[in-house]
Each structure stands twice: as structure tokens, then as C-alpha cells.
TrEMBL record:
It holds the Pfam family Mss4. PROSITE patterns: MSS4. GO terms for biological process: post-Golgi vesicle-mediated transport; protein transport; small GTPase-mediated signal transduction. The keyword Protein transport applies. GO terms for cellular component: cytosol; membrane. It comes from the Eukaryota. GO terms for molecular function: guanyl-nucleotide exchange factor activity; zinc ion binding. The lineage of its organism: Eukaryota, Metazoa, Ecdysozoa, Arthropoda, Chelicerata. The keyword Ribosomal protein does not apply. The gene is Rabif. This is Guanine nucleotide exchange factor MSS4.
Amino acid sequence: MAETAQKLVEELNHPQNNEVNETVDIPTTADVTADGKNVKQIKCQRCPSTILVPGIATLVTHEFLLPDPEMTGKKDKTLDDSLNKYWCVDNMYAFENVGFSKTVDGVKYLICADCEIGPIGWHDLNTKLSYVSVCKISYC
Ligand SMILES: [Zn+2]
């Protein structure tokens, strides 16, 4: 009984907080236009570099495991869900400041051209589509 009351108080104090992960900036419907494009400018998390200008990328869910040394050992369900969210671009020349790695198993990995943080996403040589992880970028 006391436990239930405690839980209720916590929910009142932190409405909708159980779905928010403070370390991951997951796009909401406010960040996406009616046709699914990015409203905000997509930027590098480490430096002021612009990666994509507004209205270029489409938010998609895609199963792909991006190699990430920082994520090793951090297996979190909320994080796993957002790890499958990507900004998809069908023209690799639409990127502003992005470098491409050498081809590895049919894909090229994307890095920030300025600070070389990465991989922030990948380019599929078969489909010619590029994907940028929502976990690897910030917005402005
Ligand atoms: Zn950068």
C-alpha cells in the first residue's frame, strides 16, 4: 500500500518521465515534418559542424549494429530502441561535413569531417542510402 502511494507520488512529480532517456536525444513528432523529414539542422555532437540541413533526411527504423566502442557493456532497452532510429538520406552528396570510410563489407562508415568522431552512421553501397544514427548527432 505504501509502495503504491510512493509510486503515485513519483509519477505525479515526474510525468511521462519513464520514457525519456536524458543521454539520448530521440526525435519526437515535433522534430519531423508532415512528410517525415528533419525539421531541425542535424549537427555533430562534438563540434559545431553541420551534418545535414533541415528537410533532407527521413526518420527511419532500421536494424543495423553500428560499431561503437562507447556502447560496449551498456545494454539498455531504451537505448536499443533508439539505436534503431536513423536519419536516412538517399543522396550522399546531401551531407555538409561528413567523411566516408573505406568500404567494409559493402558499407562505408560516416564520420564528422571536422572532428572525425564516428562512426555516426553508414552508407550502403547497394541501396545508395545513407543512415545517420539519432544517438550520434545533436540538433539546432
Ligand atoms: Zn564533429
